[in-house]
Amino acid sequence: AEGEVLHDEL
Amino acid sequence: MNIFRLTGDLSHLAAIIILLLKIWKSRSCAGISGKSQVLFALVFTTRYLDLLTSFISLYNTTMKVIYIGCSYATVYLIYMKLKATYDGNHDTFRVEFLIVPVGGLAFLVNHDFSPLEILWTFSIYLESVAILPQLFMISKTGEAETITTHYLFFLGLYRALYLINWIWRFYFEGFFDMIAIVAGVVQTILYCDFFYLYVTKVLKGKKLSLPA
Hints:
The complex is a heterodimer.
Chain A: no helix or strand
Chain B: H1 3-26, H2 34-47, H3 58-81, H4 96-108, H5 115-129, H6 132-141, E1 143-144, H7 146-173, H8 178-200, E2 208-209
Antiparallel strand pairs in B: 1-2
Helix pairs in contact in B: 1-3, 1-7, 2-3, 2-5, 4-5, 5-8, 7-8
Keywords (chain B): Cytoplasmic vesicle, Endoplasmic reticulum, ER-Golgi transport, Membrane, Protein transport, Receptor, Transmembrane, Transmembrane helix, Transport
Protein name (chain B): ER lumen protein-retaining receptor
Main location (chain B): membrane
């Protein structure tokens, strides 16, 4: 979604 | 994925498994702060809600599920199955003094003012201080079992390796997450005193005991 932050770390 | 992050994740996994196995094999959770373990379960729950909204990789999903599963299993052993061995009298840290300020800060300083993002931020801030009840318990009783110190060592090593990972990612990917970095630095600093005792005592074959 727009503005959504994706966190790829644990 | 770089070697520092991978070894950081594996170090984190080692810590969680060491603690779970120690409790399971000895059938005792003496010397373990149930409060810290509840806080870690809360950390994983609020951080990994994105399991429901986004897929990053099989590795990412698998690790998240293992971390959550192990942390709930640990809490279950401490408060239900092995409750009789839980040392509640020494586990007296007031967790509301951590949860309330951390919750407030997550509302004020975050990347995006959305429920999922505020919960992620809350988990990052909470993780940085979640070990305090355990360290407080050790300072109160003045000692820790050697296996418990191995647990704490791997837990501290994980965040230290993440710091190197972030330096690496900044240089090679331009990746920079201020919230994670500041909280990670705080978290690592909290372990410094323990690291010193671990190296000077435990690695030389002595039990970790503090002067009275």
